[in-house]
Amino acid sequence: MRIMIMTRMHRQRDVCAKWKRNCGPRIIKKKKKKLEENRIGATYYQMIWNGDAGCEVMDKGNKYVVDVFKRDYSCRKWQLNGIPYPHAISAINHRQEDLYNYVDECYEKAKFLATYENMMMPIRGERFWKKTHRESPEPLPSRVKHGRRKQKRSREEGEVASGTRMSRIGMKMTCRTCLKTGHL
Asked: Domain named Zinc finger PMZ-type: which ranges (predicted)?
């Protein structure tokens, strides 16, 4: 398990170094579709710019306030998801800036690298560990499993099942209509 985690951390750092944008390719791939849908939706909104970072976006009679610098949006979808929604996109497009600069910082390369910056140090084999005179640790007690318990108990090897049901082996069956044996 330790080796698997160590190699994954190393691999993730190397992959991140090859990113062409500030966001990862998987994030771009997943979010690109959403951004394109939002970009198309943004074309139908009317925007009133205040001359600074804020603007008012009108959508079918509803008004939303967007502050581009604070990345604040009265609908709150941008804050929750980290991706600009149509009202915010209309404000960003008005400023003629790249949408990917306004994707939340949790998707950025720096945050990804910060996640994998600490390395796991390799350790020597068990043969080199110091011997102690203490008792070896006991395994944790088993927990009671959730859900319905088994009806029958698990039988030990060689234990014969109790005969609560009768088998039909050796019994002579009789027909219901003619009451003769040998056929059904």
From this structure: 71-98
pTM: 0.50
Q: What is the pLDDT of residues 15-65, one digit of tens each?
A: 888 887 777 777 667 667 777 777 777 777 777 777 676 777 777 777 778
Question: Residue 79 — φ and ψ, nearest 5°?
Answer: -70, -35
Tokens of 48: 């009133």
Ordered by start, the domain boundaries in the chain are 25-107
Q: Angle at Cα 57 formed by Cα 53 and Cα 62, nearest 5°?
A: 145
* Separation of first and last alpha carbons in the chain: 62
- pLDDT at position 168 over 80: no
- Asked whether the predicted pLDDT for residue 166 surpasses 70, the reply is no
Burial class (CB in 10 A: 0-12, 13-18, 19+), 162: exposed
Bridge partners of 47, per DSSP, are 57
Cα separations in angstroms, 51 against 43, 57, 68, 94: 20, 14, 12, 11
Q: Which residue in the block uniquely carries the two structure tokens 């108990």? A: 153
Determine the pLDDT at residue 31.
Answer: 67
Token pair in block for residue 164: 């609560």
Q: How far apart are CA 2 and CA 125, in angstroms?
A: 13
Amino acid at 98: D
Q: What CA–CA distance (Å, rounded) separates 77 from 35?
A: 13
